[in-house]
Design brief:
The complex is a heterodimer of chains A (112) and B (108).
Chain A (H helix, E strand, L loop, with lengths): L3 E4 L2 E4 L5 E7 L5 E7 L5 E8 L2 E5 L6 E4 L7 E4 L8 E8 L7 E2 L3 E5 L1
Parallel strand pairs in A: 2-11
Antiparallel strand pairs in A: 1-3, 3-8, 4-5, 4-9, 5-6, 7-8, 9-10, 9-11
Chain B lengths: L3 E4 L2 E5 L4 E7 L3 E9 L5 E7 L2 E5 L2 E6 L4 E6 L8 E9 L4 E3 L3 E6 L1
Parallel strand pairs in B: 2-11
Antiparallel strand pairs in B: 1-3, 3-8, 4-5, 4-9, 6-7, 7-8, 9-10, 9-11
The chains are: A mainly beta (112), B mainly beta (108).
Chain lengths: 112, 108
């Protein structure tokens, strides 16, 4: 199936650990994104990559780092996890910055 | 005041009813996006529009740039349409500003 897939769907981990969330899209899109859903259910952009270049980098802590090995993948690495990092993280891709957004199903991260 | 506001926040209707969800925005936008979030969390892109009207199946989206207003309509609603519908606007810096969502429940 054509889709944006994220793994894992659920991630429970202890404070201080380092974890990664993977995202893959087989839609042939040229831009991928990471969003964090806050407590009010708003999605706030964290990063986006276009042709392996970081084009949006919101003021997120540098403990968060995106890694894009190729156009179809954008992984999110988080170092030294904190309680406040608990949230749902969504990956998305689009044909360009204005068209055809498709989202992954989200990863619920719980830091204990 | 949020830059993108949706109404209503919650909507419960009977199967077959015509549904309208409204979105107003205060930012200057280049395009507006309607998305559907299912209970399991998956988000599906429904429409991206910058003018006029788009139709896909039973879904219709309209936008009035002058009035800074968009509507999503569902004709002949069905229980499987139950989801959260999200309006999101692209501002002039291509940042996606999300509305709070409208939770729609269609009862059989």
């Amino acid at each position: 199936d054509t889709a944006v897939s994220q793994t894992p769907k659920y991630l429970v981990t202890q404070m201080g650990n380092d974890k990664s969330i993977k995202c893959e899209q087989n839609l042939g899109h040229d831009t991928m994104y990471w969003y964090k859903q806050d407590s009010k259910k708003f999605l706030k952009i964290m990063f986006s990559y276009n042709n392996k270049e970081l084009i949006i980098n919101e003021t997120v802590p540098n403990r968060f780092s995106p890694k894009s090995p190729d156009k179809a993948h954008l992984n999110l690495h988080i170092n030294s996890l904190e309680l406040g990092d608990s949230a749902v993280y969504f990956c998305a891709s689009s044909h360009d910055s204005l068209y055809g957004y498709t989202f992954g199903s989200g990863t619920r991260l719980t830091v204990v | 005041k949020n830059e993108v506001e949706q109404s209503p926040q919650n909507l419960t209707a009977q199967e077959g009813e015509f549904i309208t969800i409204n979105c107003s925005y205060s930012v200057g936008i280049s395009a507006l996006h309607w998305l559907q979030q299912h209970p399991g969390g998956g988000i599906v892109s429904l429409f991206m529009l910058s003018s006029g009207k788009k139709k896909h199946g039973r879904l219709i989206a309209t936008i009035n740039i002058q009035e800074k207003h968009s509507s999503l309509h569902i004709t002949a609603s069905h229980p499987r349409d139950s989801a959260v519908y999200i309006c999101a606007a692209w501002d002039s810096n291509y940042q996606l500003i999300w509305g709070a969502g409208t939770k729609l429940i269609i009862k059989p």
